[in-house]
Structure to design on (128 residues):
């Protein structure tokens, strides 16, 4: 199975082979700011399972408790499509929303629950 994530304008995409190794939700304040939402969501694929097409710009940030990530976003529309999680070498994290697929596998993990919005419940996701 191949799933394709892409930015809003379609210039940057990531074709992902197979099932993600993990799908998670992050409630940290940095992900809230990055996404403009109450959380960030990511599907982790082995780097060799992802084929990127199009130009991206990068932005790196240190994590709240770890080494952080290098984010790849479209230079035209600004959408973050994928990132290199420095805490998981050999993997790429792809923004779940970039797949625009309501049947995408749900998250099994959630992190930074201490800054989760109290009205937000992620069904089935275990705290890590």
């Amino acid at each position: 199975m191949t799933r394709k994530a892409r930015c809003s304008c379609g210039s940057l995409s990531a074709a992902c082979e197979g099932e993600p190794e993990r799908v998670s939700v992050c409630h940290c304040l940095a992900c809230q700011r990055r996404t403009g939402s109450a959380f960030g969501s990511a599907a982790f694929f082995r780097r060799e399972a992802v084929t990127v097409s199009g130009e991206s710009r990068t932005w790196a940030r240190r994590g709240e408790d770890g080494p952080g990530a290098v984010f790849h976003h479209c230079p035209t529309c600004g959408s973050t499509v994928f990132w290199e999680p420095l805490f998981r070498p050999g993997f790429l994290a792809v923004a779940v929303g970039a797949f625009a697929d309501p049947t995408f596998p749900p998250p099994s993990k959630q992190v930074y629950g201490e800054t989760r919005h109290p009205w937000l419940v992620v069904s089935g996701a275990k705290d890590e």
